[in-house]
């Protein structure tokens, strides 16, 4: 396999649950805990702006309402995306993907962008996110943004828009064609629910030239098991528990 340029430890949505997920406040806090690679979720506003949000709807992590992708960025940018988490973060805005990329470049952090389309907008989201990531990431001394998605259509669109960016197929189950699908999409990695990995599955991925990464690993026993299996990356909420140097 080609050398893997990314850190083993990846902070989920910035700082897991210690700050409002997918906001710049979360990425700053994750960095304060020593993490040097971050995972985020990116989708499109109604007017085509790539921004960070996990859910299709706004209610859980902001004071907004309805389907996020049905609002223009002018509306989304005025929402409070931190008050739901704690008074300390009240008023924290939703983040644009561009802002996070600039933060990572300025601080020399690696980035895993999960393409998280609003249902029905898979292809457009893959294209815009990949194109924006490729156009903004100009530092060749850092590994390029690593694009992942559960959506095969979004990954295929990302490949067409920015073929040089590495891609990973996200899986919460192991369908019979998991390996074939990843290879057909030109992926460099499989990113699984951590419970899906066993020695045979890791060996099969590695034999095909694919890296094996896991989400979301918050217990020491699970991390130890994955390291013993020889997996390549661990996405965690517990930036306060795990040392990214380990």
Overall description:
This protein is an alpha/beta fold and 246 residues long. 30% of the residues lie in helices and 18% in strands. It has an eight-stranded parallel beta barrel, surrounded by six helices. Helix 6 (178-184) links the parallel strand 6 (167-171) and strand 7 (189-193). Helix 3 runs parallel beside helix 4 and helix 4 packs parallel to helix 5 (152-161). It is globular, with a radius of gyration of 17 Å. The model has no long low-confidence stretch (mean pLDDT 98).
Task: Reconstruct the topology from this structure.
Layout: E1 9-12, H1 24-32, E2 37-44, E3 50-52, H2 73-76, H3 97-107, E4 110-115, H4 122-136, E5 146-149, H5 152-161, E6 167-171, H6 178-184, E7 189-193, H7 199-207, E8 211-215, H8 220-229, E9 233-236
Parallel strand pairs: 1-2, 1-9, 2-4, 4-5, 5-6, 6-7, 7-8, 8-9
Antiparallel strand pairs: 2-3
Helix pairs in contact: 3-4, 4-5
